[in-house]
Amino acid sequence: MRAQFVLSEIGVGLRRNLTMTFAVIVSVALSLALFGGALLMSQQVNTMKDFWYDKVNVSIFLCNKNDATITARSCGKGAVTDQQRHQIKADLEKMNVVDKVHHETAEQAYKLYKEQYGDTEIAATITPDQMQESFRVKLKDPEKYQVVASAFADRDGVQSVRDQRDILENLFSLMNGMRIAALCVMGLMLVIAMMLIVNTVRVSAFSRRRETGIMRLVGASSFYIQMPFIMEAAFAGLLGGAVACGFLLLGRYFLIDNGLALADKMQLVDFIGWDAVFTKLPLVLAIGLLMPAFAAAIALRKYLKV
Predict the structure, then answer these.
(1) How many H helices and E strands in the chain?
(2) Which of 64, 131, 252, 302 is most deeply buried (CB count within 10 A of its CB)?
(3) CA–CA dist 225, 230 (Å, integer)
(4) Are 159 and 72 in contact, with CB atoms under 8 Å apart?
(5) Tens digit of pLDDT for each residue in 172-213?
């Protein structure tokens, strides 16, 4: 097949259907940008989980003298005793799932509370004896929280056992919801892009029906006749994929490095790096190239009988 003929036919098709080709490029670019963004968001969630789950602790709050007047079944006898405290610590240190155990006194908890919430009105009404002492337990595997919870939840002297991961789950659920929403919109945009590609190929094939008829009469093969239309769609899709890659690069640059500069404002968050973005670009380009070509081939089998 002569490359010059194929390139000339691609140019003719793009010029004749410039508006629809532009719509295909925009649709493919937006859908693939959403697809790449959803992949990056999923990787960001996993990165944040690995980062934070490695740092969160299981907190075992011990009874104080005020708990006996509330409802805590294990605090019915009043504040935790020295014997109970020592026994809880010893049992924690014996557990294979436990990495480190740190004891925080009520005075230390009160000091930390004043540092964090000292400017609020409620902070002025809190006294040290109202704070709860606790054991901060670092687990070797954060997923083993239930082992600790089941062993200490109903023990005398223990007011409650809390997994700090619960605080982060709402954030991760929100981000996963945004990722799923992006994938749904991406799917809709891909359907629209496929329909535009089919219509573009159909119009292009109809406008060149005389040329294709002559080629068929002189013995040209189906592949030879269809290839310019397929490559026309693939070229438009490739341009859309390139635009989507640009969106992903600009998004990473303005959201994290500059513009909003989230990396500077949220230093406790471990953001994904440029390598995560670069690894997604070949996939985006490949889909941008192959998806329109596949749609064009399907359309030609229906609208271009050779």
Answers:
(1) 10, 4
(2) 131
(3) 10
(4) yes
(5) 777 778 778 878 888 888 888 888 888 877 777 776 667 667
